[in-house]
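Consider this:
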Amino acid sequence: MIKIKALPKSTAKNNTVLIIDVKTFKKSEVLSTEQNTAVKNAIKSEKKNIFFHDGSFHILVILSETTVNWKVSELLRKSGAKICTVLNENKKESVNIISDDHKASLALAEGIALSNYQFLKHKSDKKKLGNSLSEINIINTNVSKKEIADLNIIVHATYLTRDLVNEPFSHLNAVQLSDEFKKIGKDAGFSVEVWNEAKIEAQKMGGLLAVNKGSKVPPTFNIMEYKPKNAINKKPYVLIGKGVVYDTGGLSLKPTPMSMDYMKCDMAGSAVVAGTLYAVAKAELPIHIIGLVPATDNWIGENSYAPGDVITMYSGATVEVMNTDAEGRIVLADALHYAKKLNPELVCDFATLTGAAVRAIGPYASAVLGNASDEIKQDIFDSSYAVFERLVEFPLWDEYADELKSEVADFTNLGKGEGGQISAAKFLEKFTDYPWMHFDIAGPAFNHAVDAYKPKGGTGVGVRLMFDFFSKKAIK
């Protein structure tokens, strides 16, 4: 695990990254006369990056043109990805970041740290393949201990979230996912209650039980709670995550190429919940949060639920199943109804829910829908830009609810193909009576290729966004 530290000002000349302001740059003590001249020439020619290699003295220069805002922060994170690659290629174990702007230093450090992630658990030669980089030193007296601590926490939380998403179903079924939640809770300091199949049946959570019918592994319903004594919110924030640990599509079987072969990631929403709770608890934010995760696989078996079946949900509503591959909304609905008991301030659910969201906006953002206040929405969008986990809001028009009408049950679980991310949200909306936001993270939750500081595989999207949101709530 990489460690980020703050050190007093230094003229270190080993594995150093220097961030300069092109408007004020005159000379750096870290650079030689020739290198200072090279930087001045680069500024004139509007170059952005200069790499100097001189034996053990390995220096990288980033040219920053403006005040550090969300756009510049993202450029620095992406530069951090390039730097991380160079450092590991040259077997460097540490790097020093020097800048007069501590926000720039933090953004660059975050990009380097997030880029250094690897999932090597199942590799037999993990020591050989492991990155050399293990330490990032920020040399700036303006960086606070809390900023450093929070950055280490959110990097670790993102790693943890990525690990959960990347773990294959052979090592992470619903019961094992609950065990992981218990470990995370014990480490971070939040409670975890796990309902077994008997308890779920006693509570008549018909949606979760229906999806689980074809499985050999029982479902679980997970209740995670972080309630500090100094919590500033009287009513809890509730986070709900889709915990479908593997999705075959059920009897509405998925094709394999670029679909079923990546369905270990269908529990990414549940990983967001666990990762966020970990970060908030570790940072000791004065926010009361409850996490809910209905967990199962969507398997094929002799008892599998089938298209045309009618199931009775936890709420008592009846649903005609038109497609067993639209299972995520079915398990989420039971958790959304349970949340009514908690009198929540706000409920946010996270799910790799629809291909329609991916077709609409690709992997570059999450689709978001909900009925929360304009103030809450603005706070969420502000945080999304701060960490560059962008959101696109879609409307919750009633016409999409009309697509869910059924002749034999209260409603169906499937609308039309067009705007499917909206009809899916309209299904979920039926189980809410509180301020609510739905995040369809199907696009950005899992990468098929490296994208700067976001690795191939699980990205951990959603955790940094929610940690930023709750951190700002804590100081309002």
Summary: The longest strand covers residues 289-298.
